[in-house]
Design a protein that fits this description.
single chain, Rossmann fold, 3 domains
Length: 511
């Protein structure tokens, strides 16, 4: 792990950002305070309904069963499950034991799972017998001492009597290893301590509107932000948990109407696919007061559309490594909420390098990666994290992400921002979502290729129509896309980001 400068440790402790509370302490305190709070799973294959107290009993029986099998503080527990109640039981049980939980997105394939198991050497692996295209493969965890499969033998791990209390663990020690989506390489194992994860939970909860309603959580709990929103923040706040194991805009709209649930944002795709669904009516929009946007580049075309429909968007910037860096207030000025990624949150620090790269540090910054070489490359001796993102600060200190360092198209020696071109494309009436990538060019080296997801009932614009649109927008001609392709949907990471490396491969392949 990286070395955290002693002056930062002292500051975080003095400010109360880092405490002696573990994740197990946080959960036990919250569960005692609100045992009768609703916990539901809206699923066609594994629905469940109960209370926090019901889930805690399951989690404590699992913790006792794992303890009998030799699992304790510091041991690793890998879980690869959809948004089911068993995922909550495994996560909470791990916290009660002081174990290190390793959530894995349920639709990761054998290659990713094999890599994660090898990197974390787990004492426990809990998976699903089958879900969609996922099917449990025993050979992936044949060296793991304890294995449980939901739908087959998971209940065998539960002891008759639940674990009482918590096993002691150092709050500065690892609590979670969250694997990033791996858009360009094998997933990176991001290590968070009880202190960094606890601070992030409190920080993120404080940024949410108090009247946000009963949230419908469909972001995979195998992903960092889905896990925090599903299993930690509701316990901290005593608010209901309503999980969905697949993202189906039609189902979400039906639950808004029948159950009064709320879709509160996420990656832009969640909101645009909801708004573009043929079942979406003004009555549904009345259920949505806010849209907290993040997890991917947030186009102003999306935020302005939401604002025009009476939904207040507010943007945030962070990553699995440093989850909460900036945020716009949900009731802040529209100009900031719509067009910037916010100003610094308490404890967070930010500076820009000469080429605009964002460096950050703060109490929720991770301990490092499971791969020491990655840790050495990403963090410096003063505690700064090299994000790889490019941004600008306005006169009020609000940050706007303009690009990724690796997401620049170099056309004839001139840099083109993919984000800038995508913004212009999204202003076209037919375009619901856009991704711009570099395509090989025998003359210029690279040129911009655009792939678009169309709104229902619209045809792909012609190149002439697109060029006229860019000309009206006043965009320099060298930035105009020189290819335009329609897609039904994009390949995505668990957080909803577009896997641009796959798009680049597709564009570069001979047609």
């Amino acid at each position: 792990m990286r070395t955290i400068p002693s002056e930062l440790v002292k500051r975080y402790e003095a400010e109360g950002w880092w405490t002696r509370e573990t994740i197990g302490d946080l959960l036990a305190r919250g569960l005692r305070a609100a045992p009768d709070t609703e916990f539901r799973v809206h699923s066609e294959v594994r629905p469940w309904s109960g209370t926090f107290a019901d889930v805690e009993v399951m989690a404590r029986r699992l913790a006792a069963g794992l303890r009998e099998r030799g699992v304790g503080p510091g041991d690793t527990v890998v879980l690869q499950l959809p948004n089911w109640v068993e995922a909550a039981a495994v996560f909470w049980a791990s916290a009660f034991l002081g174990a290190v939980v390793v959530p894995v997105v349920h639709f990761y394939g054998p290659k990713e799972v094999r890599y994660i198991v090898a990197a974390t050497r787990p004492h426990v692996f809990v998976g699903a017998e089958r879900f969609g295209r996922l099917e449990f493969q025993a050979e992936l965890c044949e060296d793991v001492p304890v294995v449980g499969v939901v739908g087959r033998d998971f209940e065998d791990l539960l002891a008759d009597e639940p674990l009482t209390g918590l096993l002691p663990v150092d709050p500065a020690s690892p609590a979670l290893i969250a694997f990033t989506s791996g858009t360009t390489r094998d997933p990176k194992g991001v290590v968070h301590s009880h202190q960094t994860l606890g601070f992030e939970t409190r920080q993120l909860a404080a940024s949410y509107p108090p009247d946000r309603g009963r949230q419908f959580t469909v972001a995979p709990v195998g992903h960092f932000i889905g896990m925090v929103n599903a299993f930690l923040i509701p316990v901290l706040d005593g608010t209901p948990v309503n999980l969905g194991d697949t993202w189906n805009p039609g189902q979400a709209l039906a639950l808004l109407e029948s159950e009064g649930l709320v879709v509160g944002g996420g990656a832009p795709y969640y909101m645009t696919s909801l708004l573009d669904h043929p079942d979406c009516t003004p009555g549904h929009l009345a259920h949505m007061k806010y849209a907290g946007m993040g997890g991917a580049a947030v186009p102003s075309a999306v935020t302005t559309r939401l604002e025009s429909l009476g939904i207040a968007p507010f943007r945030a910037y962070g990553s699995t490594e440093h989850p909460s860096v900036t945020c716009t207030a949900y009731d802040g000025p529209a100009a900031k909420r719509l067009y910037t990624d916010g100003n610094l949150l308490p404890g967070a620090e930010l500076r820009l390098t000469e080429d605009g790269e964002i460096l950050t540090r703060g109490p929720d910054l991770c301990l490092g990666y499971t791969d020491p070489a990655l840790t050495e490359a990403a963090f410096d001796d003063e505690g700064w994290y090299r994000t790889g993102d490019i941004g600008v600060l306005d006169e009020d200190g609000y940050l706007t992400i303009t690009d990724r360092k690796a997401d620049v198209i170099i056309r004839g020696g001139e840099n083109i921002s993919a984000v800038e071109v995508e913004e212009v494309l999204l202003a076209m009436e037919a375009v619901a979502e856009a991704a711009v990538v570099a395509a090989p060019d025998p003359r210029l080296g690279e040129h911009a290729a655009a792939l678009v997801r169309l709104r229902p009932g619209h045809a792909l614009p012609s190149m002439e129509e697109m060029r006229a649109h860019f000309q009206r927008a006043g965009i320099a001609r060298q930035k105009w896309p020189e290819e335009l392709h329609a897609v039904d949907d994009f390949p995505r990471t668990p957080s909803g980001k577009v896997k641009k490396f796959l798009l680049r491969k597709h564009i570069a392949a001979p047609q």
